[in-house]
Amino acid sequence: xxxxxxxLKDHDAPIKVLFTGYLCTVGIGYLFAxxxxxxxxxxxxxxxGLSVNDIVYSYYGNRSGTVLETQLNGxxxxxxxxxxxxxIMEWVRAGADADDYKIDGIEKIIETRCVMCHNKEASGxxxxxxxxxxxxxTTQDTGATFASLTRVSHVHxxxxxxxxxxxxxxxxxxxxxxxxxKCIAIGMPYVFLVADIMSWWLTxxxxxxxxxVIFAGMGMGISFMFMWVTSILEMWLFKPVFINGFGSRYLQxxxxxxxxxxxxxxxxxxxxxxxxxxxxxxxxxxxxTNGWPVIKNLFKK
Length: 301
Prior knowledge:
The protein is mainly α. The chain is built from 13 helices and no strands. Among the domains are: 8-38 and 144-243; 63-135, no CATH class.
């Protein structure tokens, strides 16, 4: 059966170059994003490498200490020697007094070690050029603020969804993947993106949701790599991989008459989707019949 689209391997060379250029650019960008996570969230507990504690400290906070102490023992640990960090923490624990700020030499340490990045011109980081800006971070560490979560959430929602839209569009021209697998692979990043954003807010409320942050991030990464690798291989290495190489076995397995995992997942998804509308109708009916009257009576009382 002739496909209803032009497979990636049959596109003209300029289109292949365009697709490849975009995929390589966003691939490098994705790599730098992972590195950036390692050097920010990955250092929240003072140890290199992303862990559950890093996620908890980043979003829920380290409630046993102040924001400034958490940063000095975590992501900012390498920016000042131990004696200067300890001196700042002593000042914080003593009450972060404005007079002691100058007398104890804290102001000089901040100007030398911190103000080069934490200034009025820098965006996305607090301004430490004034005492009041630093004082705000000597309170209990409650993690990311709701304002910062709101800002980062909408930026990620818009930006990352556009990235996956174009990656998914290119991947939709693949011919070595069945329609079921395509739909699952293209839809997965959006599901995991929403789960990732929501998990930040849930972790802010309770630290047990930190695992969901890691799981959602891994899901996005796996789906991205699957679409990226498949698209590149089909455009430039179709014959060596899918005709003469290991990919030929995959195609035999794909074309097997036995139901694949994707077929089963696809059938299950369609079954669930067919039940959604009746379920919504039932919930709505129960709410109007039993729920809303109770709420209405409470308001009257």
